[in-house]
């Protein structure tokens, strides 16, 4: 218990004064004990208990009328300050007597971002942008002429394909986040569920609604519900579910994980939507039965499927390089965990540079077989762009440390820009 020492000094007090001073000393004694008790209570309520040590003694050397006035003024000031802080917390703008309060003194709880922004981040924007660019580009590639693309039926078929595909993209990426919350807290703590901006139950509702809308649209329309659209949506749904959801969890096995990404980004999306465009949008195109017929008998469909399948391999390899810490912690045996970051990074980078180099050379050769000058010029320009892209892939990788997760992730996101540009250039090869 704190000690209160009162020294009389050389002063002599009359009996009445002595009694008054004794009463004041008792009051100050009680106030001192109360103050220290509150301080100790606040400290132990919010902080771990330190090593035991005696509380300091409160020493008042002299007590006189001036000391009493000072103590009273100090106590009154503390009470006013406490009331002012309470008023500031309650009102947020003014304290007692309408005096403005410094906002720096008021601790504000951080608010969540708006739900539309959280939902946008939940979609993994780089993937949904890829899907939004891919489908119009595939339609343009399948069109017999550019004029045939700009028709009401073509646009109707395109929109009917794009809407459910974006919902399916949301389902696949959302399901992956729902099943990887603990891993994402290590690898991608900025994602909405891992960060706490989106609750688990809300995420499940969003994913289920997206799945129902996507699959329903694939079958309900009497004209636009083609076999190609159904393959693209149902195939993506099946592989996306097997990739993320227990007990399958194909992402734990590197070959199966790569197969899922390659199949979706390569054959299912490109051949599926190409077949859908041919069947529902362009009457002048000779009908080729089903997705397999497009792959076997239409070189444009085969070209886009093979190119983006290989690009999908690069994405599958590169995306795991910065995620090694979380994957290793939760026993996800990716190629990066098995072989090391540097080896996988170099392999993926070289594969993409080689892909652009080969495609650029092929397009240059195809310029000699073009039916007219405009096709020759387009193929030549796209071929040159492919060579430049391959050169950039190697050049940009020089400054990247394969063991620096942030640097690799930034490089990986730049590869998505090449992915977008590849789809934008795709219609000009025909």
Automatic annotation (TrEMBL):
The lineage of its organism: Eukaryota, Sar, Stramenopiles, Ochrophyta, Bacillariophyta. It is a multi-pass membrane protein. Gene3D superfamilies: UbiA prenyltransferase. The keyword Membrane applies. GO terms for cellular component: membrane. It holds the Pfam family UbiA. It is found in: Membrane. One of its GO terms (molecular function) is transferase activity. Keywords: Membrane, Transferase, Transmembrane, Transmembrane helix. Coiled coil: none annotated. This is Uncharacterized protein. It comes from the Eukaryota. The chain crosses the membrane at residues 20-37, 127-146, 158-178, 198-217, 223-243, 255-282, 302-322, 343-364, 411-429. Belongs to the UbiA prenyltransferase family.
């Amino acid at each position: 218990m704190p000690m209160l020492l009162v020294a009389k000094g050389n002063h002599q007090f009359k009996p009445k004064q002595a009694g008054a001073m004794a009463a004041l000393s008792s009051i100050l004694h009680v106030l001192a004990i109360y103050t220290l008790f509150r301080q100790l209570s606040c400290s132990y309520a919010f902080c771990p208990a330190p090593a035991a040590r005696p509380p300091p003694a409160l020493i008042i050397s002299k007590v006189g009328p001036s000391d009493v006035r000072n103590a009273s003024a100090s106590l009154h000031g503390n009470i006013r300050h406490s009331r002012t802080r309470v008023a500031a917390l309650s009102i947020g703008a003014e304290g007692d007597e309408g005096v403005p309060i410094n906002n720096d003194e008021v601790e504000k709880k951080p608010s969540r971002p708006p739900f539309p922004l959280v939902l946008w981040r939940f979609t993994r924007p780089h993937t949904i942008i890829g899907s939004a660019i891919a489908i119009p580009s595939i339609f343009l590639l399948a069109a017999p002429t550019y004029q045939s693309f700009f028709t009401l039926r073509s646009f109707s078929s395109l929109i009917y394909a794009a809407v459910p595909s974006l919902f399916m993209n949301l389902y696949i990426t959302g399901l992956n986040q729902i099943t990887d919350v603990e891993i994402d807290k290590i690898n991608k703590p900025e994602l909405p569920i891992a960060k706490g901006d989106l609750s688990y139950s809300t995420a499940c509702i969003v994913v289920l609604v997206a799945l129902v809308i996507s699959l329903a649209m694939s079958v309900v329309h009497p004209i636009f519900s083609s076999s190609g659209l159904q393959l693209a949506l149902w195939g993506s749904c099946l592989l996306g579910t097997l990739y993320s959801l227990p007990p399958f969890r194909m992402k734990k096995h590197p070959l199966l994980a790569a197969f899922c990404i390659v199949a979706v980004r390569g054959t299912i999306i490109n051949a599926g939507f190409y077949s859908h465009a041919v069947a529902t949008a362009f009457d002048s195109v000779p009908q080729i039965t089903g997705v397999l017929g497009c792959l076997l008998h239409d070189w444009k469909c085969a070209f886009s499927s093979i190119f983006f399948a290989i690009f999908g391999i690069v994405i599958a390899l590169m995306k795991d390089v910065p995620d090694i810490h979380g994957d290793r912690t939760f026993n996800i045996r990716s190629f990066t965990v098995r072989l090391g970051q540097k080896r996988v990074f170099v392999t993926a980078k070289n594969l993409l540079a080689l892909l652009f180099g080969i495609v650029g050379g092929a397009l240059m050769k195809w310029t000699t077989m073009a039916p007219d000058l405009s096709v020759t010029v387009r193929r030549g320009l796209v071929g040159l762009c492919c060579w430049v892209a391959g050169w950039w892939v190697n050049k940009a990788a020089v400054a990247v440390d394969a063991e620096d997760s942030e640097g690799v992730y930034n490089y990986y996101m730049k590869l998505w820009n090449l992915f977008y540009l590849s789809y934008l250039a795709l219609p000009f090869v025909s």
